[in-house]
Specification:
It is a single chain. The chain contains 15 helices and 16 strands. Helix content is 37%, strand content 17%. With 443 residues, it is an alpha/beta fold. Helix 2 runs antiparallel to helix 11 (321-336) and helix 12 packs parallel to helix 15. Strand 12 (373-381) and strand 13 form a beta hairpin. The protein has helices at residues 47-50, 59-71, 84-96, 111-128, 149-154, 158-161, 188-206, 232-243, 264-267, 295-302, 321-336, 339-354, 357-360, 394-404, 426-442; strands spanning 26-30, 33-36, 41-44, 102-108, 136-140, 171-174, 211-216, 246-250, 274-277, 289-294, 364-370, 373-381, 386-387, 407-408, 410-412, 415-418. It folds into 2 domains: 15-54 and 338-442, Alpha-Beta Complex (Aspartate Aminotransferase, domain 1); 63-336, 3-Layer(aba) Sandwich (Aspartate Aminotransferase, domain 2). A 7-stranded mixed β-sheet has the order 4-10-9-8-7-5-6, sandwiched between helices. The chain is globular and about 65 Å long. It binds 4'-deoxy-4'-aminopyridoxal-5'-phosphate (PMP). 4'-deoxy-4'-aminopyridoxal-5'-phosphate (PMP) binds at residues 110-112, 115, 144-146, 217, 221-222, 250, 252-253, 278. 4'-deoxy-4'-aminopyridoxal-5'-phosphate binds at residues 110-112, 115, 144-146, 217, 221-222, 250, 252-253, 278. Belongs to the class-III pyridoxal-phosphate-dependent aminotransferase family. GO terms for molecular function: pyridoxal phosphate binding; transaminase activity. Its cofactor is pyridoxal 5'-phosphate. Pfam families: Aminotran_3.
Length: 443
């Protein structure tokens, strides 16, 4: 085997894998398609990595980036420094998040940063609010919150934690309300009640005066697109309120229309205290993260006059002018083209076309999704719902054949995940489904 022609390690992969296979080189993108270095045109079934929501190669975004580079490529916003794009974007975000009563944003460079900011400022909130012992975090067993030590500590999946332990102390994990796989019940509403009660029991077990926050994704993404029952988030909000625990919604994937609602929290009619945003905020044209805070958090900081209320947190690239300009142009498209509504429509269409896969193919245990985030759950036996062995490469083979038939999909362990651009149309869906069909037929 030839030595590889490059010297970087791939995220989320054992380096040895690249000794036995070639990378899939994506060299160009346009709309809902990307092109590999062999000139093959592929439907982008993953929108880059859940993020290229407005599609590739949008002139509006390229123009905004170029214009900002001409005006001011970079300056910091530490201390009292500012620039127009950071200010304009904060106003737009607070406007977009008005139904959730968000009041302030804190900028960073991506999703992991947005989560880290949420966790750190949640702890600081409690110190400023006079309850310094509230430091613990509770999260869900299938949750994914990025790769910083804080996010990895609240992550649910062992593979993201194990190699990096010991992690942050004071993080506890409870059952996900996952109708397809749980030890309790098949009834969604009963499951929502049980899982919300588990949160309450964990808070009581820890001592409410020691719990800072509960963090979760409104629809779990990397864990396998797990859509909670409709009553789960309202019940969780009520439990958090009962014990004063902050509710952090990690909207890194669900924000800006992916689920078919403008934000995942809005799907469930819930107002979190803190929201983590990234990915779709710029559609991936430039890295940016943002964490939004409600009045309760703002009041605590506003009411504090000593040193402890100073925010000793921030990134060189907090509020990067090019990132903010990109987000402004991107969110204009998201709003003008009502991409959330398109995600709802195309998501339904895609789901309807994929549901028969669970009848046709022995390995497809369940097809599920919300808006344009969907997953096919792969099993060895439909009745027992025993997952396939992730080591046997089946999901990767399906993805490989689908790619040879013109579409990129994402094999993740025992699932195939789909998260196409929110500008997807019926032809794109049809092409994606045909390629995936070929993948399952041939794998
Ligand atoms: N939170 C969630 C819900 C995510 O899905 C991700 C990334 N997929 C992150 C946080 C981390 O974001 P990033 O990779 O941009 O650091």
């Amino acid at each position: 085997m030839q030595a590889s022609a490059y010297q970087f390690w791939h995220p989320m992969l054992h380096p040895n894998e690249m000794k036995v296979r070639e990378p899939i080189r994506i060299v160009r993108g346009d709309g809902c398609h990307v092109f590999d270095d062999g000139g093959n045109r592929l439907v982008d079934g993953v929108a880059g990595l859940w993020n290229v929501n407005v599609g590739h190669n949008r002139p509006e975004l390229k123009r905004a980036i170029a214009a900002q580079l001409d005006e001011l490529e970079y300056f910091q916003i530490f201390d009292g420094l500012s620039h127009p794009r950071a200010e304009e974007l904060s106003n737009l975000l607070i406007d977009m998040l008005a139904p959730e009563d968000m009041r302030r944003v804190f900028y960073s460079s991506g999703g992991s940063d947005a989560v880290e900011t949420a966790l750190r400022l949640a702890r600081q909130y409690w110190k400023v609010a006079g309850q310094p012992e509230r430091t613990k975090f509770i999260s869900l067993k299938q949750g994914y919150h990025g790769t910083h030590f804080g996010g990895a500590s609240v992550n649910g999946n062992m593979v993201f934690r194990r190699s990096y332990e010991p992690l942050l102390p004071g993080c506890y994990h409870i059952e996900t309300p996952w109708t397809y796989r749980n030890p309790f019940t098949e009834d969604p509403e009963e499951l929502a009640h049980i899982c919300a009660t588990l949160l309450e029991r964990e808070i009581l077990f820890q001592g409410p005066d020691t719990v800072a926050a509960f963090i979760a994704e409104p629809v779990q993404g990397a864990g396998g697109v797990i859509v909670p029952p409709a009553s789960y988030w309202p019940l969780v909000r009520a439990v958090c309120d009962k014990y004063g625990v902050l509710l952090i919604a990690d909207e890194v994937v669900t924000g800006f229309g992916r689920t078919g609602a403008a934000f995942g929290s809005r799907l469930w009619g819930v107002k979190p205290d803190i929201m983590c945003l990234a990915k779709g905020i710029t559609s991936g044209y430039f890295p940016l993260g943002a964490t939004a805070f409600n009045q309760r958090i703002v009041d605590a900081f506003d009411g504090n006059d000593d040193f402890s209320g100073a925010i000793f947190h921030g990134y060189t690239y907090s509020g990067h002018p090019v990132a903010c300009a990109t987000a402004l142009a991107n969110l204009k498209i998201v709003r003008d083209e009502n991409l959330a509504a398109n995600a709802a429509r195309m998501g339904d269409y895609l789901l309807q076309k994929l549901l028969p896969f669970a009848e046709c193919y022995a390995a497809v245990g369940e097809v599920r999704g919300k808006g344009l985030m969907l997953a096919l759950d792969l099993v060895t036996d439909k009745r027992s719902r025993e997952p396939i062995d992730p080591a046997n490469g089946y999901a990767a083979r399906v993805a490989e054949i689908a790619r040879l038939h013109g579409a990129l999909v994402r094999p993740v362990g025992t699932k195939i995940i789909l998260s196409p651009p929110l500008v997807f149309n019926q032809q794109h869906v049809d092409a994606l489904v045909a390629a995936l069909d070929a993948g399952f037929a041939g794998a």
